[in-house]
Amino acid sequence: MAALMYNVSRGFVIFGEYSLLLKGHKHQILVNSRRYVRALRRRPVAVLYPDGEREKLIKSNEAAYKMNEKLFTQKDKHREKVSEKAGNKKWSGHVSECADESPNIKDKLGGLRFEKAPPGDNRLAKVASVARSRAFREKEGKVLLEGRRLICDALSAGASPQTLFFSAVERLQELPLDKLQQAKLIKVRYEDMKMWSDLVTPQGVIAVFSKPDASRLTFPKDARYQSVPLFLLCDNIRDAGNLGTILRCAAAAGCDRVLLTKGCVDAWEPKVLRAAMGAHFRLPVFPNLDWDEISKHLPKDVVVHVADNSVSFIKAPVPGQRENGSSDEYSDSDSDEESDDELSLPCLKSQVYYGSWAQRNTALVIGGETHGLSLEARRLAEETEGKRLFVPMAPGVESLNSAMAASVLLFEGRRQLLQLLDKRRRRTRSKII
Length: 433
Known about the structure:
Helices cover 34% and strands 15% of the residues.
């Protein structure tokens, strides 16, 4: 049987058992018939027999159309099911939209579910912009924490997280997942986080917490066991970097607590938080206090000392001033006329910082570089028979940074208190023996 194909003018096809003969060339060519039969197995337009009969199409266009329509219908139904399933996953509480990304993602997150922020979502922008406002923090009672270490310290201290933004699941796994059950988790693009972050290289996690209350936080036991009866009062510290460094020094020196007056910069300012390196969650910090409230946070037998290099309020002579190596700023004023306010200012004895001044419950007041100590701080020191501590410096140096002066005095106070406690222990042991 022979089959003729349309549009083949230079040859004829003879189905034989072994070969296929093609003409139209200078030399006759024998071609393996099996290879050519494979081509014939594709869908031909029609097949003509020698008697002129015409065979029906193997698969007509109508049948192919119906088959394609059936396939497309099945795909459409599958897409509708997928879209309907995704539509039902609108966020309510904790809904995971990442199940399709990785089958084991729920196991990695301990069953936590999160929401993936869609394009154009501005929730991170709103939170990051308003959280930098002190008025917003005080009105809404919220603070913004950025970075794994700071967020972990806050969670360990018992702070309450509300919303947490993260750029990758790996960043979320670095946090204590068991303490994020009540938080709203939102995955955002790293580019968006970099845009609204205060850091040059964001760590990929930003959290919004309820404003912590120092009286309700749980501080590390090892840090509290190493604390000494040393209290720090910050008076008119206006620089955020200085205040954060002072808080960090207070935590390192083992202070019992830190009290901030209303003249200080907000303790929850982002720059203060970065400089403090988690000190807010290692010792109690009581911000925005009046002087009447400060006495409530101090023991009754406390002695308050002040440390300040400003000379605007110092009018009384200091005995032994030049022998201690201090500058002329501590001497009497050359002016013969003094106002009533100047005459009423407290007169405090001056003492070098390495002298004996921390022998019981001790409070140290650090004044700001610009405004110095307030009148209330000096009066409190006078009432408790405190002294004015200073750090001798080389000639030509005006004064120390507030944070630097605080670090020198705090660690010296810690040394003296630990030495005193050691003496008491030895006396107790000797009496027992």
